[in-house]
Amino acid sequence: MAFSAIPTTTSWRPVTADNPYTLFTHRSLISTPRLCRRPSTIICSSSLKSPNSTEEKRELLKQYGLDPDEFLSEPTPSKSRRNKEHQKTGRGKQVRAPHEQAKPRETHKLLQVLGGTARRKKLLSPKSMDVRPMMEVVKGAAFGILQAAGGCPTSLRPGRWLDLYSGTGSVGIEAISRGCSQVHFVEMDPWVVSDVLRPNLEWTGFLDNSVIHTVRVETYFERIKESSGKDGPFDYISVTPPYMEVDYEILMKQISESSVIGDDSFVVVEYPFRTNMLETCGGLVKLADRRFGRTHLAIYGPTWAQKKRRS
Fold this sequence. Notes:
Layout: E1 9-12, E2 24-26, E3 40-41, H1 53-63, H2 68-71, H3 79-89, E4 107-112, E5 122-126, H4 136-149, E6 160-164, H5 170-177, E7 182-186, H6 190-204, E8 210-213, H7 217-226, E9 236-239, H8 248-256, E10 266-272, E11 280-281, E12 284-292, E13 295-301, H9 303-310
Parallel strand pairs: 6-7, 6-9, 7-8, 9-10
Antiparallel strand pairs: 1-2, 1-3, 4-5, 10-13, 11-12, 12-13
């Protein structure tokens, strides 16, 4: 059985000796001085199963001078209900900002060829730091040592050059400019190859003397191993990797055990400060080890070159 208590306005009456059990009485029955001017309202309700229960409530509230809309307003929908409504109407969805397009990589001309037929020609290099060309002072020192070791201070002995981690191609282009007949460039970044390395080769006129391998250095050595080194060893090998991305001990072991190195090869290695480099690389011995700030330069070569340098 359901019931509904009708809202009513009451006034308080103090407890007296003749009426100790009465706390309040209805204003319509007893007229007493009101101790509190603020009316209090008591609302008791329960759901009525009658189909007209809402209308009946509205009528009763109107009879007592109350606003039915204030007491019979719809409850605030729950969070889950609001989410469902938003999904239906399409409202409440988070608007994501469009993905910012990656800024195009840019180049500038800060490098140059130091010697040979292409001397003073400017070379492209990326503005970002993801490609770090060999410093010109290091490059100049390396070629000076190689030319002296080969017996010709003004140029390199004719031969083939392998430029590992070539990047801009600065080292390999310098080699062609100073007398090398062919250079193999190994660079894994397609953008560097298409927008930096190849334009530099075209600008210097050395594209016909070049072979570009757009692969990782590890992949290149795997291919050399599969082909059993049919092209033979290189006369010069330059190794200028990103310092923090290679293990020099593993890299040098890989080079020394491969067919790219021969008894008369020269190996140029640029490495960072506090890196331990072995005194030998395969059958080659260390000819020089110089420091340029935090950059070090090690050059390995045949024993006859070492004897020539000492003499």
